[in-house]
Amino acid sequence: MIAKSLKYMQKKYKRINFLPLWSSFHYAGPREALHHLSMRQNLGFDYFYIGRDHAGAQNLYKPDEASRASKKFKKMFKIKAINSKGGYFCEKCKDYVIKGGCKHKKLINISGTEFRSFLKKKVIYQHSDTKLQKIIYKYL
Q1: Phi, then psi, of 133 in degrees rounded to 5
Q2: What is the pLDDT along the chain (140 residues), one digit of tens a residue?
Q3: Quick check: 133 and 121 in contact, CB under 8 A?
Q4: Among 86, 70, 81, 84, which residue's Cα sits nearest to residue 34?
Q5: Can you say whether residue 132 is alpha, beta or left, with left for phi > 0 and alpha for psi between -120 and 50 degrees?
């Protein structure tokens, strides 16, 4: 299912390339984000995306803690961390934005938790690619 999803994304977006790294999740928040940076750097990656609650679980860490850790230790890495405050849908622009990337105030939070709950129920989540979700549902 993951391989089919990645192929779909590569075909749709053309300029994107996935090189998956399979490892266990430890939900160690900022420490795990730094570990992920190190692994990707050792594999030759140039950039790594750190989300608003990277590798956190059950509110053990503040949502921006991983981003703050990557900034604090950035001199230790050659790889560039791309820190994000999360994805949103701007009702004015009718487009998806990263928080801070749009001047409008009326933003709808794109929740990974909500998206996963929709996936479990096999219900289409409006803020995700419908065709990709249907591909995933064939395998669930």
Answers
A1: -60, -40
A2: 677 787 888 888 887 777 777 778 888 889 999 999 999 999 998 999 998 888 777 788 998 899 999 999 999 999 999 998 888 999 999 999 988 888 998 899 998 888 889 988 999 999 988 998 998 888 77
A3: no
A4: 70
A5: alpha
Residue with tokens 């984000």: 33
- Extract the tokens encoding 129: 């690619």
The residue among 104, 135, 103, 139 whose CA lies nearest residue 8 is: 135
In 1-140, beta strands by DSSP E: 47-50, 80-83, 87-90, 95-98, 107-109
Please enumerate in sequence order all residues whose Cβ is within 8 A of that of 115, keeping only pairs 6 or more positions apart, or say none: 125, 127, 128
Q: Report which residue type is found at 37.
A: L
Structure tokens at 139: 């395998």
pLDDT tens profile 36-65: 999 999 999 899 999 888 877 778 899 889
